[in-house]
């Protein structure tokens, strides 16, 4: 039997320090209105819950994007080219990425995720499936500066699926895209999924599933604060609320206090009035034109865009100018 030489995956840990979490939570809950960063939804349990969300009937984004990638894999493969380094931001279980890994002759795959446990499990599974592929896992908050390993190969292509770009305020999205273009060279690529504007009812159902998994995902942020900061949030005193803000073209996700209550965090008391909100996440929806216009201001030139038959979702391939 012919043996296949399996490469040994490497994992580099740039995990954010807990003091950033403490500071951000204290500042966010002291603000008016109260707000917490969406990235903190993704602890180990939060990441697992989000993976469940992506399988829900209501959550059209994941399956629609996967269909686009699968239907367009030959064209996308040509755009990525031979011997490229594929860098995925927020890789999770890398489910959609397998379409690209199977179709492309890559030099290396670099998944980046904030969840150390999920990243390690994913890297080990992928190395078993693709034993000859160079895999370099990075545990990091990809919105912050981090280092990439020394890479050979033809070029770098960043893969940013899931319309996670929609979690950024538009000005933040521009800053983030400029950061990405700065770590790439002219001709390097960005393959990015972007949710499109559509009927409000379709969008709202995606964030208010009947099984309540999105509600559990949202409330898990309070569980995380309780665990890491030794606080006393009672989850039954908060409700999940998500709605589409038509004026700002975004889904807003909130945790609403059902009662007047006071939460002790370290040496500070945080007061909540009945019906007061903690704003936990936005998800902006774009038109193809508006997103490409944004990218052009950030040194990314649109090359090709792929959409589904319903025009619900888009996958853009852009190159650094």
Kindly describe this structure:
The chain has 321 residues and is of the alpha/beta class. The chain contains ten helices and 14 strands. It has helices at 18-30, 44-53, 60-71, 73-80, 97-103, 116-129, 170-182, 200-206, 213-229, 288-296, and strands at 10-14, 34-35, 85-89, 108-113, 134-140, 156-160, 189-195, 238-245, 250-257, 261-265, 268-272, 277-284, 300-307, 313-320. It has an eight-stranded mixed β-sheet, sandwiched between helices. The chain has a four-stranded mixed β-sheet with strand order 2-12-9-8. A hairpin with a 5-residue loop joins strand 13 and strand 14 (313-320). Helix 2 packs antiparallel against helix 9 (213-229). The longest helix has 17 residues, at 213-229. The radius of gyration is 20 Å and the shape is globular. The mean pLDDT is 93.
Short descriptors:
single chain, 4-stranded mixed β-sheet, globular, alpha/beta, 321 residues
Low-confidence stretches: none
What's the multimeric state?
single chain
DSSP E strands, number:
14
Strand content: 25-35%
What is the helix content? 25-40%
* Most strands sheet: 8 strands, mixed
Spell out the blueprint of helices and strands.
Blueprint: E1 10-14, H1 18-30, E2 34-35, H2 44-53, H3 60-71, H4 73-80, E3 85-89, H5 97-103, E4 108-113, H6 116-129, E5 134-140, E6 156-160, H7 170-182, E7 189-195, H8 200-206, H9 213-229, E8 238-245, E9 250-257, E10 261-265, E11 268-272, E12 277-284, H10 288-296, E13 300-307, E14 313-320
Parallel strand pairs: 1-5, 2-12, 3-4, 3-6, 4-5, 6-7
Antiparallel strand pairs: 7-14, 8-9, 9-12, 10-11, 13-14
